[in-house]
Amino acid sequence: MTHLDVEALIADRGTKIIVCCGSGGVGKTTLAAALGVRAAEQGRRVVTLTIDPARRLAQSLGLQELDNVPRQVAGMKLKKRADGAKNEGELHAMMLDMKRTFDEIVEAHASPAKAAQILANPFYQSLSSSFAGTQEYMAMEKLGQLRASGEWDLIVVDTPPARSALDFLDAPARLARFLDGRFIRMLLVPAKVGGRGYAKVMNAGLGLVTGTMMKLLGTQLLTDVQTFVAAMDTMFGGLRQRADATAKLLRAPGTVFVVVASPEPDALREASYFVDRLVEEDMPLAGVVVNRVHRSTVPQITAVNALGAAEALDGEDGELNPNGDIDGALTAGVLRVHAQLLTTQATEQRRVDGFALAHPNVLLASARALAQDVHDLNGLRVLGEALCQPVAE
Amino acid sequence: MVNPQRGDGRDRDWDGVRLHIVTGKGGTGKTTVAAALALALATGGRRTLLVECEGRQGLARLFDSPPLPYAERRVAVAPDGGIVYALAIDPEEALLEYLEMYYHLGRAGRALRRLGAIDFATTIAPGVRDVLLTGKVYEATRRRTTSKSTRTSPGDRTSEAPDDFVYDAVVMDAPPTGRIARFLNVNSEVASLARVGPVNRQAESIMRLIRSPQTVVHLVTMLEEMPVQETLDGINELHEFDLPVGGIFINRVHEPLLPKAEWKAASAGSIDLTALARGLKSAGLPAGDAITAGLSTEAADHALQLTIERKLRTQLRTAARPTYRLHDLDTTDVGRLYALAAELVDQGAA
After folding, report:
1. What residue of B is the nearest CA neighbor of A124?
2. How far apart are CA B231 and CA B248, in angstroms?
3. Which segments of A110-218 does DSSP mark as H helices, in order?
4. Which stretch of DSSP H or E encloses residue A330?
5. For B121, which DSSP code?
6. Among A146-160, A201-215, B118-132, B151-165, whose mean pLDDT is lowest?
7. Which of A230, B198, B262, B350 is least surrounded, with the fewest CB atoms within 10 Å of its CB?
8. pLDDT (tens digit per residue) in B90-115
9. CA-to-CA distance for A89 and A83, rounded, in angstroms?
């Protein structure tokens, strides 16, 4: 198994963007925050973009509100630099507000009058606040903005809990496809030409389609969609350009993807899928982090021996305790805990080995499971530490 | 005709519920629990449909079957007869099916697809995708047998009533907790967006079913802080949207391995190391300082976990919902689903 050196990755000034992706429940958001803290304390100017952090994690970063602007995180313990120079590391964090991000794009690309018209459109309001893919578009849009500002030398981005694994990769392309498609032009026609002219422009198929849509959705929704599309028309070029730019940014030198998994079969399967997709799409994959692995520090006592001894020790007539002067229950309990840990460790190791066999060229790192959830900066430091620990053979 | 096996006098928590919507934070085993519940509900000669809507083919993997097409397939036979069917909903297919069913739109349907309208409707247009997913579940839940002959199930389940439901219960492996309220509420949003027309009518009927006593939303969690917090937040949100909250399914329960008397000392890291060393030696095991220290750290982590779990169980009790415990089973084969289903039946979840 080839080791992913996370420490070197965040120390490398050439690393500009780290995209953390993975399935839900593997600790991706926390891990992204931990990377941010560690990189900042080592002297980098970092911003972490989180999508939907758990409340307590947000609080641990000092984020009280979802205001779409990076805020500096206080309480960094900056490491002394070897060359004696001042450590200028900083951590900023922000939560994505997808509706506001979308509104800003509209305001930036359309005339004030048109922007107001779009922002008031019911279809737009629904699209910008509740459409499942909007989060992905807007996360990528925000990433582009942060990068373009040039204010940070490292951006750590946590991807949305995707409905299908790589929505954030597919979303911009899907948007572009939609904007270039015939469907949108068809929607534009009635609004532009209107009245009887439209029958001439449309061929029979299109007419049938619009008729169907009218029947299904009611004319009012279709009108909303049409006025929305017409209003957006002027900014389509801009949107398409942005989608293309995002796609490019994700492939640019300095961007790396870190796939986060846990040693559970489902999470590893998803990670496999992510890895294959990233490689297929020519995306720069740094490696896979297996989070929450269990490790015993007492390999000298095997699970079998521990369980055998536990059985012999406990019980009233524990054969190893004829005089009753040994705390059999305590030792047996401790040994059972140990045996369970070793069994879990072995199971997890088998799964991770399987993953490594299937992906021989993918670098792997792991972070051990912490006894409790992370609630504060210190917890993030401990996780960062665990993540950067050199592998013990 | 009442199935005699359902009249066994057992106390079941969800009698009368026909649509079970199962949600949970990612990684908590939502799909597995949904499958076990479908199996449990099928126990005793009933028919259940298990629906997956996120295109992951998780059900096929769980039941060790080839990928599910967009069709209802029999995936398991429950104890004492009973059949579990499974369906992986594809929004595109669902839309075309819907158009065909209500409008006989063979040609226009194809035209829509060519134009990218289907793509638009299922991926870009707000909420349409979720409407389609819930719409299909609605249809399956309310579907009735067309004639007596179509309902020939094992044993005594041949129906007398011509208007029997095809499925006794439908279990939906729904989107995760963070999205569930919005997902289920999508139909009221759509109903307000499309204020007239068939889509509006359909959306309103779906909401009526979801808000009726025939539907509950179950939440799957593990005894970890984030999933529990998300579960409680999810319950509040469901209440806010006036959606029916079902039970809490606590997955991957661990039994304590340390004697209770030792928890406190263990979590404080103050296990009597000399006593431990003596015990290890008497069992012929190595008992050096590094070993006793290492073992005591492991015990401390375990005790801490138990303490946290206890605190979290107390927190979950504040939700005042029925809870069910499912043990962590170290297998991934189909047998595990039967074991989990048996646990659910024992606890009255089905």
Report:
1. B126
2. 8
3. 112-120, 122-130, 134-149, 167-180, 182-192, 197-201, 204-217
4. helix A328-358
5. I
6. B151-165
7. B198
8. 888 888 887 777 667 666 677 777 77
9. 15
B285–A309 C-beta distance less than 8 A? yes
- Helix (H), strand (E), coil (C) string for A19-81: EEECCCCCCHHHHHHHHHHHHHHCCCEEEEEECCCCHHHHHHCCCCCCCCCCEECCCCCCCCC
Distance CA A46, CA A37 (A): 8
Mutation target vs A (from B186, B252, B298; most A CBs, 10 A cutoff):
B298
For the CA atoms of chain A, what is the radius of gyration?
27
B-chain residues near A300 (CB < 8 A): 286, 291
Residue range B219-269, pLDDT digits in tens: 999 999 889 999 999 999 999 999 999 999 999 998 899 988 888 888 888
Kindly list the residues from chain A whose CB atom is less than 8 angstroms away from the CB atom of residue B332: 265
How many beta carbons lie within 10 A of that of residue A176, not counting itself? 18
Interface mutation vs chain B, best among A121, A177, A334, A338, most B CBs within 10 Å: A334
Average pLDDT over residues B284-304: 94
Q: Is the ipTM of this complex over 0.95?
A: no
* Of residues B111, B179, B271, nearest to A208 (C-beta): B111
Our CA-based measurement puts residue B276 at a distance from the nearest CA of chain A, in whole angstroms, of: 5
Tell me which long-range contacts A181-187 makes (C-beta under 8 A, separation of at least 24): A181/B115, A181/B116, A181/B119, A181/B120, A182/B115, A182/B116, A183/B115, A183/B116, A183/B117, A183/B119, A183/B120, A184/A229, A184/B116, A184/B120, A186/A210, A186/B115, A187/A225, A187/A226, A187/A229
| B126 touching A (Cβ < 8 Å) | yes
From the candidates B104, B119, B124, which should be mutated to test the interface with A, based on the most A CB atoms within 10 A?
Answer: B124
Q: With an 8 Å Cβ cutoff, is A217 touching chain B?
A: yes
